[in-house]
Amino acid sequence: MASTPLEAIKRYSREARSDEKRQQARPVQKRKGRATGYLFLLPWFVGMFVFTAGPVIASLYLSFTNYNLIGAPSWIGWQNYLAMFQDPQWWDAVRVTLVYVLLSVPLKLAVALLVALLLKRGLIGLGLFRAIYYIPSLLGSSVAIALLWRQIFDSDGLVNQVLNLIGIHATTSWVSTPDTALYTLVVLSVWQFGTPMLIFLAGLQQIPQEYYEAAATDGAGPVRNFFSITLPLITPLVFFNLILQMVGAFQAFTPSYIVSGGTGGPVYSTLFYTLYLYQEGFANLKMGYASAMAWVLLIAIAFFTALAFLTSRYWVFYQDERS
Amino acid sequence: MLTSLSRSDRAGADTRFRRSQIRPGPRWFSKKAARLLVYLFVLAGAFIMIYPLLWLISASFKPEDLIFSTSSLISPQWTLGNYSDGWNALDYPFSQFFANSLLVCAGAIIGNIFSCSLAAYAFARLQFKYKPFWFALMLGGILLPMHVLIVPQYILFKELGWIGTLLPLVAPKFFATDAFFIFLMIQFIRGIPTELDDAARIDGCNHFSFYWRVILPLSLPALVTTAIFTFIWTWSDFFSQLIYLSDESTYTIPVALSQFIDSTGNSAYGQLFAMSVLSLLPIFGFFLIFQRLLIQGASTTGLKG
After folding, report:
1. Among B30, B58, B79, where does a domain finish?
2. Average pLDDT for chain B
3. What is the mean pLDDT of residues A110-121?
4. Which of B121, B153, B277 sits opposite A40 (nearest CB)?
5. Most buried of A321, B38, B272, B275 (most Cβ within 10 A)?
């Protein structure tokens, strides 16, 4: 089965630990190697302390302060966090983001898996189809595509033109109707299923053909094959794609900003969490509040990721563990 | 497990096989029909996937009043006016924005290749104290959402007087802040045989010249992958460019595009589409040239545009 970065990380940290033990037995080389190692890591150390670890600590501190870039931050304790729960727009942002994540991620993975299963059959022109299905996820996160999306779903946009063509008279602007605006962003996200599809396709092509031959002699049909062979064997990839897409969806910004023109409208129906954070931090200069919001986002992402990891032993099937 | 089962169960399988032969009609038909159906489905899907992009290209060559009157790709009239007008629609010509975007991308690529490969060599080949700790910290950096960092980073760059310049977008890359690429290169460097290390050491090669003369040239595929994805990510990055670039002369392509509607009013969609097409061309070009590498990178690591 394809090894995902997650498995590579596990393997690496195991080996790093045994390296450390080996080195402790050879003290002379250790001292020499240590200096060189730290020298090679020098740029990374500077970057880590100045641009990553330092800001993480600073952001945690700022989240307990009131700060608008002028003067010094003033300590206000938990007030930023408490204010969030009183803030109706914050709740809008949370609701919109959760709906977006919970809809777009499963849909995207389902479409990706379906198309990967179809392409696996080795059609003529596989390379071309794979390229066409992959291109949207390469271009899709750009401002240009978000602008295009706003036009496609506008009142005289492509979607309505096509609907009129097949006899349905439609003049609604999907992006400026509060009930539908968020779903146009979900469609934009699902349209970019190319990356998980490629991962699934690579995994499917590695499943030994003998499994299916064996199942065929046992009289299994395609549905049974899928649920008893294919799906269990690619659960590690489903898991990997799920984490990747979920973390990405929580942090999506461009589509919300561009399609709503930076407002999150109509009536906050496309106000992504990151867009609200941007508005509060960089338009209203509420740096303390924005920092607190960022920490809640971090905790939310960590929570959902941990949830996926904890439940994974019930539904992710690793071949090397069973055999 | 399944294979061993089939071997021990050969005799039983035989009878089952014969049973399925009794009703060959629907099986034979469904197999061919299913194949045709799959083909049609894949073809239709590909058409739907690519149509918005084709429509965008076609619209960019249509006169303004024809863009929204038809969903067809074919127009009775074609024009290049959208391109020439759009190029100069903002206060600065688009050549300025292209130059800015290219500058940021070039800086980010050089920075990432230099700093990430140094760090990756240390993690992949050298032994030093607390290595697992630093490694874990590095991995944590991959998963960290940038929103936790953005406010303090903004304050830092403001103190340095860098807001409104391209520096906040480039300088951090020289300090290996894109930890994902460190990880990518570690994976690659670990695949280079360690016999080379021993041979180099016998020839009196120290770690720096070994890194420079052996590891870097051999890691070329990983470096190219890093360069391509750094380019694609930086080229389409919007959030940080929107925050740091306040002066129109420093606008990159995404920021310039996002200001387009506000600056030109609602009537200039043809020009907007023309500039959008131009903004996508470099990524598309990279895709055509490095298609195999990109698809491989995406299949194995989930690298995304």
Report:
1. B79
2. 85
3. 92
4. B121
5. B275
